[in-house]
Amino acid sequence: MKKIYIVAIAGIFILSALTGCIxxxxxxxxxxxxxxxxxxxxxxxSNVTVTIEAGDNGSDIEEFKWRLDGDYxxxxxxxxxxxxxxxxxxxxxxKDKRGNEADGNITIKIDKTKPKISFKNFxxxxxxxxxxxxxxxxxxxxxxxxxxxxxxxxxxxxxxxMDRVEFYLGDKLVAKVDExxxxxDVNSTIGIYNLTAIAYDIAGNNASIMIPEIQFFVPR
Length: 220
What we know:
The structure is a single chain. This protein is mainly beta. It has 2 domains: about 25-110, Immunoglobulin-like, CATH 2.60.40; about 115-220, Immunoglobulins (Immunoglobulin-like). Helices cover about 10% and strands about 55% of the residues. A hairpin with a 4-residue loop joins strand 8 (about 85-95) and strand 9 (about 100-110). The longest helix is centred in the first third of the chain and has 20 residues, at about 1-20.
């Protein structure tokens, strides 16, 4: 009887020791996401590459999936490349072998398109006298501005939207306009200059237009 008792007690101690060594995995996997691209104000003006890392401290990862814009779920097998303009929703999740799950999502906004810009009330080869447009008879036709006027451009952009328009006289910035109407009020300008207008969208893309060698006579 004593031997049976000793064996039973020993079995209890061994079982307790083994049970203590086995840790139950109740923690979800951890997920880390990395986004690469040329970004400005929350918008990317380039293709975007997304890398996701999944790991687990208690057991191995059993499932690791992702989907874009509500499409079907795919097994994660490496970097994800997003190339089209627009606002995209990337979802991802992982499950370990104990059934614990973790998920996440990220919004990716892409605009690789330059803004559109054009002069609204100004073109080469005409005389502008106090803002009124007149033909120039001589050839070659000079572009002249005599007296004060306002030069306006039309600028628009999708999908990120317009950020600003800058006006340059030669290399000098003479106006920066953050919202419509995009106007430069010409005053105190005498000489011959190239006039350049540059439109910037929120993503950082830009487009420019230029009229060369304008003769300005706009005294104070």
